[in-house]
């Protein structure tokens, strides 16, 4: 039986994935922890933009920050998040890989 906790957790996950930058951050962190400056360069966004999205992902409970001296390392809050992303990618590609082309900007499939 679904509970409010399940609903809220899935809503947070969906919100995190609703933005392409946040999605790219999560996908990048699947392979291991990262530092904001490196992540910003890999993803192709400013450090400020990345910082805002990391704050959102922390608030959603999907990533955690670990201070390391003057730097902060970010990683997925739970390895199962990476597995869930892998499963979602496989499912979406199996269902219809052309469902939501990148040119579709209205956010609807």
TrEMBL record:
One Pfam assignment: HTH_5
Taxon lineage: Bacteria, Bacillati, Actinomycetota, Actinomycetes, Mycobacteriales
GO biological process: response to cadmium ion; response to lead ion
Domain HTH arsR-type residues, every copy: 1-96
CDD domains: HTH_ARSR
InterPro entries: ArsR-like_HTH (IPR011991), HTH_ArsR_DNA-bd_dom (IPR001845), HTH_Metal-responsive_Reg (IPR052543), WH-like_DNA-bd_sf (IPR036388), WH_DNA-bd_sf (IPR036390)
Name of this chain's protein: ArsR family transcriptional regulator
Species of provenance: Rhodococcus xishaensis
Gene Ontology molecular function: any one: cadmium ion sensor activity
């Amino acid at each position: 039986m679904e509970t409010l906790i399940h609903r809220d957790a899935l809503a947070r996950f969906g919100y995190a994935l609703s933005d392409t930058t946040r999605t790219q951050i999560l996908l990048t962190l699947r392979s291991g922890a990262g530092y904001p400056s490196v992540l910003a360069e890999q993803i192709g966004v400013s450090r400020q933009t990345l910082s805002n999205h990391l704050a959102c992902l922390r608030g959603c409970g999907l990533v955690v920050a670990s201070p390391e001296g003057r730097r902060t390392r970010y990683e997925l809050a739970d390895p199962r998040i990476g597995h869930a992303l892998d499963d979602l990618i496989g499912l979406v590609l199996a269902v219809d890989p052309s469902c939501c082309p990148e040119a579709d900007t209205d956010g609807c499939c």
